[in-house]
Structure formats: structure tokens, C-alpha cells
Amino acid sequence: MASATGSGTAASASASPSGPKVHLVKAGSGGFKFEPAEIFNVSVGDTITFEFYPPDHSVARAEFESPCVPYEYTGKDKVGFWSTTQWVKTTEDITHWNLTINSTEPIFFYCAAPDSCLGEKMIGVINPNSTQTLAAQKKAIEGSIQVTPGDPIPKEGSATLHVPGASGSPTAAPAASGGRHSSLGSGAIAGIVVGAVAFLVICAALFFYVGRTKSLKEVLNRKNATVSTTGHDNFGPKSPGYPYSPVHNQADYNNLPPYAQHNGTDSHPPGWASPTAHPQHMSMMSAMSHTSQPSMADVKHTGPAELSSPGPHQQSFAAELEAPIKSPR
User: What is the value of pTM for the model shown?
Assistant: First the structure.
């Protein structure tokens, strides 16, 4: 099982021809990357010197297929390493951190700066082999989470952690038991209540409007039926069941005097005038005068003539007839 130890002392990237070698890895030089990202042929006892550039890079060990999670979080009794965050303002303040290698097995590492691993894929590997490669580790970043050593795994997230020597299927990090439960907030409940009340009000108004319209139609239909059965012309002839009765003739009868007296020698009383004859009566009088007109010789003075006032419902003349006076012989 691979292991490593680290020290925070500064060191230069040098190597002795007969002793252990020193391998220099730049962290953050010209971007979010380790340069080089793959270090081959590192022997036991060799030193990896990480050189940190601005502003806040670090290096932490990771397990294969768990690229952005601390190594010690992936299994019991596992010991990882971490340089802590290296705060560097300028290139004049560059810091170094040394890692001594005691195994030739692949050792993966990542930068724990915010979004460096997940977003920028700032990872590396020491002594990769044919199965545990840098390309496979980068592919495993998709769907993973990023955790800084010493911080807990987020409650809402989970990471697929690989344990070497297991049955082949990766194990998932345990989810926190204090996760949030899905529930409706007070604002959502209030919105639902308001919507339901508004719907009921609209339905009630619609039912009231329909009932009101139906009632008005029934009233109008009854009114139209009543008008059609009782409305008749007061001045024209009625249907066969209602005989015509001229009302204005009765008024004419009431205005006539009960009788009229006139002597041949008397003049008309003051203010007296013959009533105007109705056109129909005038035509009848004209016809009678042409058929039978008495001569003056046959007319005798008989005194005052009395004419009876016509009774109701009788045809009358509108003009009084004056009795002619026979001249003395």
C-alpha cells in the first residue's frame, strides 16, 4: 500500500547522482494546473517538491476514481497528505513543500483551492500504470464533489469512492442523516389557499350570472306573452269576437239638445248656429233632396216643429231641419 510523508520546509529542485532524486512540480504556474501532471519513475526515497504560485493553491492526496476527495475519507486507517493552503501574493513569495516517496504504487493528488479540482481539473499522479491513469482520474471528476481535508462531506452531496481490493463495485460515501426533508413552505401554502378561494369566488359569480340571466329571460317571455294577448287597437275594428262600437258617436249624442223649437217668424236666438253636418249625412241629404222635394204649394204652416233627440245607438243627422212656412193665399 502506497504511503507518503510531507514536510513544509523549502527545498530546491536538485538531485544527487548517487542519492535520492528530487522531482519539481509547479502548482499554479500559468494557470490552474500541475506542471508536470504526471511524474514517472519515482523511486522509494525520492522527493517531490511542489512549488506554489499565487494565489492560494495546495496539494492533497486522493484515491483513484475519487479525484477531489481526501484520501483518508475513502477508507478506514488510510493516511493521506496535505500541504495546507499556500497563500502567495507575488512570484517573489513563492513557497515550496516536499513530499518523500516510500512506495512505487500510483499516488494521485489534487489542488484543494475552491473549484480547482472540479472546475479546472487540477489533478496529478505519481508513477501511473496501465490501469490507473491520469485520463481515467480526470474522467471520474464528472459527478464528483470537492472536499478540502479537514472539512466534512456536504450533507446534500455524495461521492463515489473507490476502495482497492473491494468486490469491484465502488462504494458511495454515506449520506448525512440530518438532510433536509422536502416540504412546502408557508409562502407556497398561502398561495395555494389564495388560489383555491379565488377559484370558488369565480365559480359562485358564474353560477349567479347564469341564474340571473335565466330569470330575466323568463320574465321577458311572460311579459311578451301578456302584451300579445291584451294589446288591441281602440280605434279600429276588433276580431269577430269583439264587435265594433264607435265611441265617438255616443259622445255626439250626449252633446245634442233634447229637442229644438223654431217658429217660422222667429229669428235664430242669439249665439245660435246650426251644427256642422257630417260629410256622410250631407251626402244622404243630397240624395233625398233629389228624389223627393216638396213644392211650395204643398207646404203648409203647421206651427212649431219638434224633433225628437235621437237615442243611443241610432244613426242621426247632425243638422236640424227647419219647417217651411206656407205663404197665405
Answer: 0.47
